[in-house]
Each structure stands twice: as structure tokens, then as C-alpha cells.
Amino acid sequence: MKVLVVYDSVSEAKVTKKVAEAVVESLKAKGHTVDSFFVEEAGKAKVQDYDCLIVGAPTMAWRPSKRMKGYLAGLKGGSFSGKKAASFDTQMKSSFSGDATKRMDKTLQSLGFAVQSPSLLAYVVSENKVYKLKDGELERAKAWAGDLAGKLN
Question: Could you tell me the domains of the chain?
Fold first, then answer.
């Protein structure tokens, strides 16, 4: 299956990019063909050429990043019926941080995508005002992508 991963990453530590890379690695290990793009370069890929779209963004004020919202809005009017999709985000583990994946999944569904898996929420911590993934989050991302890979066949 041909998979497109589009992600945004805003922190200096690029934690969402690291999660995207782990997802790509796991999907490739399961035999899928995967292309991955930073959201600002995603216009190079034509979504219709893929069987599945996976989007990932940091949660910012209960929503995906502004760039990811713009990317998804740019897909409106496309024909995605029969295409599969999934989403992930990075966020602080707090009842106040919100969940960007809910909005991304809702948008994907409204575009005609069939969301294949519960979203991955990858947790970050701030140490001395520097964000990093909590211990074990990359392994969780790989496991999530491995499970998703089985649903894509």
C-alpha cells in the first residue's frame, strides 16, 4: 500500500517530526511504500496518488497547528472516497492541552477519508523550557504504526 505522511513540527526539538519518522520507519518495515513531507512541502505530493494519508501535528490551543489546518483546508473539493487515513499529535499530558487529532479526524472524514485507527497521542514534556518526547513515546509510535499497517492491507 502507498502511504503519504504529512506532518508539522514547531518546536526547536522537532518532536512531531521525530514521531513522524518513527511512524514512517514502522510502516516501511511492514512492507508499505511511504513518502513523508513536512507540511510546507506537502504540495509536492498528490494525495490522490496514495492509498492512505496520515497527518500529524502538535496540539496548539486544543487544535492542530495553523499550517496543518491550512493543509487540510486545501484538500477540500478533492475526491478521497475509498482512501484511508489516520492521525497523530504531540501534546503535553494535561486535561488543559486538548487533542488535535479529534479535529484532524473530523476533517479527514468530512473529506471522504475512512479513518482506520484510533489516533496516536504522543506526549511531550518540557525540561528547562525545552520540549522532548516522554520516555517510551517513540516506541509507542512505532507500535501504533505497526498496528495501523495491519489495518491497511
Answer: 2-146 (3.40.50.360)
